[in-house]
Design brief:
Blueprint (H helix, E strand, L loop, with lengths): L2 E7 H4 L6 H4 L3 E6 L5 H4 L3 E8 L4 E17 L11 E9 L6 E2 L4 H9 L8 E3 L2 H12 L6 H13 L5 H11 L3 H10 L15 E5 L8 H5 L4 E5 H8 L3 E3 L5 E3 L5 H7 L11 H13 L11
Parallel strand pairs: 1-3
Antiparallel strand pairs: 1-7, 2-5, 3-4, 4-5, 4-6, 8-9, 10-11
Helix pairs in contact: 5-6, 6-7
Length: 298
């Protein structure tokens, strides 16, 4: 799959999302005056970046798979008697639109310079590391860990001791994607290990031993992962739940009984744990779980 970038100037064209309804739409649009062939674009991914204000603030506002390309009159702002037509690009929105600011991120500054302050308009992204960075920014939007995720990925990409193939695997692992996620989906039959939820977009490939404490080898080890529904993944990440070696969930005393009922916490993992998974969970119970030194079943 190829990746394309569209730059929207809000000061000239108005906000990309003029109202809440447009923000919640399942499809999005972008316009370009460039004469791309439809077959070059359809089936590939577009990222829309909106810029506004002085100094210019930029954010990723939407992304998705291009599903239709049609010829259309250029907006009046850009229309001339010599150049009246352009392309309207329609794409299917991935998950949901939740804009995320990228103005001060180092990778974005490099991209902005490469794109000559986006004077190139709609263009193809050819650098794999830039694609990984923009994917990371979007995947981390709205989370308290977004800056740390991006910093971790930048550290990987800048580490000259790591070969290119391993870098790609590590970035995928940090995003909960790639081979790491594939292995966890195979292990847990494409379902949350606790709830049995099979909605893929609601599942997270979570590291058991936190990324910051793991070696690069451990970061790629599927034994150091578990497929969890998003709300359980968040609790697990913050040490508010963990699991015994027999798979039973342990719940922190910081979650009251009412919230436990609302979140439907409790129960056990759907499969018996491997020796590798037990080893990583021991670290989680002893070092991450907030009740400190939770009882082990060893």
């Amino acid at each position: 799959m190829e990746h394309f970038l569209g730059y929207h100037i809000a000061d000239v064209e108005g906000p990309y999302f003029p109202d809440d309804k447009s923000k919640q739409a399942s499809t999005g649009k972008f316009y370009t005056a460039k004469p791309f062939r439809p077959e070059t674009l359809i089936g590939n991914k577009v990222w829309v970046i909106e810029g506004r204000g002085v100094p210019r603030q930029c954010r990723i506002v939407s992304t998705g798979i291009i599903i239709n390309v049609t010829s259309e009159k250029r907006p009046e702002t850009y229309r001339t008697s010599e150049r009246e037509d352009g392309l309207s690009i329609k794409f299917r929105v991935d998950e949901f639109n939740d804009p995320t600011d990228v103005t001060d991120l180092e990778w974005f500054k490099r991209l902005r310079d490469l794109q000559q302050n986006f004077s190139r308009g709609f263009t193809r992204l050819t650098d794999p590391s830039t694609v990984k960075e923009i994917e990371a920014a979007w995947a981390s939007r709205g989370t308290t860990s977004s800056n740390q995720n991006l910093a971790d990925i930048e550290n990987i990409l800048n580490d000259e001791k790591i070969d290119v193939t391993t870098k790609r695997r590590l970035v995928d692992s940090r995003l909960g994607q790639g081979r790491f996620r594939d292995d966890l989906e195979a292990r847990w039959k494409n379902a949350c290990a606790v709830t049995g939820c099979t909605v893929s977009s609601a599942l997270r490939a979570s590291h058991i031993k936190p990324w910051r404490d793991s070696s690069n080898e451990e970061r790629l080890d599927p034994n150091n992962g578990i497929l969890l529904a998003a709300h359980i993944d968040a609790l697990f990440d913050y040490g508010l739940v963990t699991f015994r070696d027999d798979g039973r969930m342990l719940i922190s005393k910081h979650i009251n009984s009412r919230d436990q009922r609302i979140l439907q916490l409790g129960g056990s993992l759907s499969k018996f744990l491997t020796s590798g998974e037990k080893r990583f969970l021991r670290h989680h119970r002893e070092n991450v779980f907030q009740d400190n030194k939770a009882p082990s079943s060893e």
